[in-house]
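Recap from last week: sequence in, structure out.
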Amino acid sequence: MLVQEKKTKILVSINNIEDIAEYKKVGVTTFLFALKDYSVGYENTYTIDEINNINEKKYVLINRLLNTKEIEELKSIINTIKCDGFIFEDVGLINNINDTYEKILFINHFNTNSSTINTWLTYCDSVVLSSELTYDEYKTILSKVNKSVVLNTFGYNQVMYSKRSLLTNYNEHFNQDKTYKNTIKDKNSELRFKILEQNGETIVLSNSIFNGSRLFNLDNVKYYMFNTSYINIDDVINFINTGNIDNSDEGFLDKPSFYKLKGGNK
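Predicted structure tokens:
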């Protein structure tokens, strides 16, 4: 069972406003809200008014890659949001978020080494580490970073993000019935993935829930981030209390990734 100190470092995404009270009962005090029109892949998003009316410690997620027009539109409203900070993917926002907010850079699949992370930490208050790291790699990186960082600890991990309507394009090309949720299977590995299309963009998620409970053993962590989208709140709370959940795996924690560079055997 987690000690209270660890529970207060859990940053949990909110699917329903009513869930906040349930999370507080088990010691969670910090919450994440996906911003409407500027987030993709999350079960629910929230308007600025909805976010501003929530009197809790909170962060706002902006995980879409934005074009120039969208950044300009966001600049006109972002400083009206009442929150402790922003978690964002588009590096173009670094200089467009007021320094009174905490800035946490969340670049999926990147931030895999301490040198890169420490460079970003000169511009941001923290970063979210890649989910494709082993436990030993997390441990090594955390011993070398200049500021505490955020670890993706729970939820369906993002495998791919496209700014195209991949499901719609596929369905139209093959004359299939229109759908926005589906499951795809890799022919070679037989692995399955969840595919979700929202507002003309496509997210591919892992088919099993990432169980990163071992990461609670690590130090120099600012937050343990929980993406609870498409997961029942009772299962999330059970995970917080016991570290167990059905349909889960430990991702890459014991599976190092190896890359072969073209043009050499070294």
